[in-house]
Amino acid sequence: MSEEFEPRILAYCCQWCSYAAADLAGSMRLQYPPNVRIIQVPCTGRVDLLYLLRALEDGADGVFLSGCLLDDCHYVNGNYKALKRVEKAKEMLEALGIEPERVEMFFNSSAMGPQFAQTCNDFTERIRQLGPLYPQPRQAAAGA
Ligand code: FES
């Protein structure tokens, strides 16, 4: 598509594990793309299905959740609930003709700073390959 495309990505990270992993990645001076904007949440189980879809509707090209490792959620099963919502969001996107790969769920413990950085790199590259979600409005806006 275009080499210049820089995706906008929203990441909901639980405060107990993945947000700490993002902190650790920063402390370790690991590079990950500035495309990823992180929102800290108490638990991925608190992220409603609508938050995922609304992020895409409001201009994100991709959105992911990053929670505690399965069976390590501080609220017992929040990450399992989040995983189900991500799967539902994928189904809904597919029904709408939108690539379901634009939504994903990852699991990173607080000690997994390098893995978190890799998650950001890999997901950014995935979305870069998919291209912009709404190419026309952005190009029109840039030319206006
Ligand atoms: Fe981390 Fe639930 S507290 S996913």
From TrEMBL:
Q: Which residues form the F420-non-reducing hydrogenase iron-sulfur subunit D domain?
A: 9-131
- Swiss-Prot/TrEMBL keywords: Iron, Iron-sulfur, Metal-binding, Oxidoreductase
GO MF annotations for this entry? iron-sulfur cluster binding; metal ion binding; oxidoreductase activity
Q: Which domain of life is it from?
A: Bacteria
**InterPro entries, from UniProt?**
MvhD/FlpD
Q: Which Pfam families match?
A: FlpD (PF02662)
The signal peptide, as residue positions, is none
Q: What is this protein called?
A: Methyl-viologen-reducing hydrogenase subunit delta
